[in-house]
């Protein structure tokens, strides 16, 4: 192990609150919750090429198979987009579209009910975006329609952002829909589901003694951080820090890889 790697691991271990990893060897089960884009995978100009950081899939696979850990990905992406990018078989359970969808490791898929009013409003918003000439930037998914501007220059981004707000604003507050910015875009989505709701649902089937951590980077992960604080470990994963409810901050990919490796080491898993 290099001196730089030792230094990273030492600094990372020192920053983890309440000796979290000391609890892992004593537990019969564990829970690791992960956002996808920007957390375990770098943002990509082409969303269909957003593959995970090197070594991360292998580490997740080891945590699932040798660490008695329930691993779940909780993403704003549509659930079925993630397995081809992650490249694991079986893949972890995946909660897509902020929990509107669930895809378990066997491939069983379920979709929360989207009311007729919300469905119609989202369709109308999508049509209006097309009329504004934004079709190449629009993503349709269960319970949401999003506009992405990550690939755009500053002036074009501001133009697209203004158009998206004008289109979406009339629908906000009706049919349980809200407007939400994420890292690289904005979307109109169901108010009834967020990442904090998924965290609560996952925790409902486990005892209060089970160690749990959530790693995320996006403003939409703040719901999960606030839900889990006081119960588990919350980790902001970004190249630069920002105001957050998370308890600690790590930089990808080096410290992310270190964190996952420390999880495996603590629980006696196989690297």
Keywords:
about 270 residues, four-stranded antiparallel beta sheet, eight-stranded mixed beta sheet, globular, alpha/beta, disordered N terminus
Describe this structure in words.
- The protein is an alpha/beta fold.
- 35% of the residues lie in helices and 20% in strands.
- The strands form two sheets. It has an eight-stranded mixed β-sheet with strand order 5-4-3-2-1-10-11-12, sandwiched between helices. It has a four-stranded antiparallel β-sheet with strand order 6-7-9-8, with helices on one face.
- The chain starts with a helix and ends with a helix.
- Mean pLDDT is 91; it is low at 1-8.
Summarize the structure.
This protein has nine helices and twelve strands.
Helix percentage range = 25-40%
Strand order in the largest sheet = 5-4-3-2-1-10-11-12
Tell me, rounded to a whole number, the average pLDDT: 91
The number of helical segments is: 9
Q: Span between N and C termini?
A: 14 Å
What is the general shape? globular
Radius of gyration: 19 Å
Order of helices and strands: HHEHEHEEEHEEHEEHEHEEH
Q: What fraction of the residues are assigned to beta strands by DSSP?
A: 15-25%
Q: What are the low-pLDDT stretches, counting only 5+ consecutive residues below 50?
A: 1-8
What structural category arises from helix and sheet content? alpha/beta
Q: What can be said about the biggest beta sheet?
A: 8 strands, mixed
Total number of β-strand segments?
Answer: 12
């Amino acid at each position: 192990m290099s001196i730089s790697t030792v230094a990273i691991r030492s600094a990372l271990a020192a920053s983890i609150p309440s000796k979290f990893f000391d609890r892992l060897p004593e537990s019969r089960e564990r829970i690791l919750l992960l956002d996808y884009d920007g957390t375990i995978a770098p943002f990509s100009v082409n969303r269909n090429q957003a593959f995970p950081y090197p070594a991360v899939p292998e580490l997740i696979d080891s945590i699932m198979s040798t660490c008695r850990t329930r691993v779940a990905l909780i993403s704003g992406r549509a659930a079925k987009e993630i397995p081809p990018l992650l490249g694991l078989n079986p893949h972890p359970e995946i909660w897509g579209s902020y929990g509107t969808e669930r895809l378990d490791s066997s491939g069983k898929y379920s979709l929360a009910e989207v009311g007729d009013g919300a469905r119609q409003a989202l369709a109308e918003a999508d049509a209006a975006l097309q009329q504004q000439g934004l079709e190449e930037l629009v993503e349709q998914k269960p319970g949401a329609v999003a506009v992405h501007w990550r690939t755009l220059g500053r002036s074009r981004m501001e133009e697209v952002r203004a158009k998206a707000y004008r289109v979406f604003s009339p629908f906000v507050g009706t049919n349980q829909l809200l407007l939400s910015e994420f890292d690289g875009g904005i979307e109109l989505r169901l108010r009834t589901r967020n990442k904090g709701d998924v965290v609560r649902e996952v925790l409902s089937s486990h005892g209060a003694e089970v160690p749990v951590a959530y790693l995320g980077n996006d403003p939409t992960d703040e719901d999960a951080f606030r839900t889990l604080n006081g119960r588990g470990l919350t980790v902001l994963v970004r190249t630069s820090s920002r105001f957050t409810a998370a308890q600690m901050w790590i930089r990808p990919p080096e410290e992310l890889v270190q964190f996952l490796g420390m999880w495996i080491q603590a629980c006696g898993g196989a690297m």
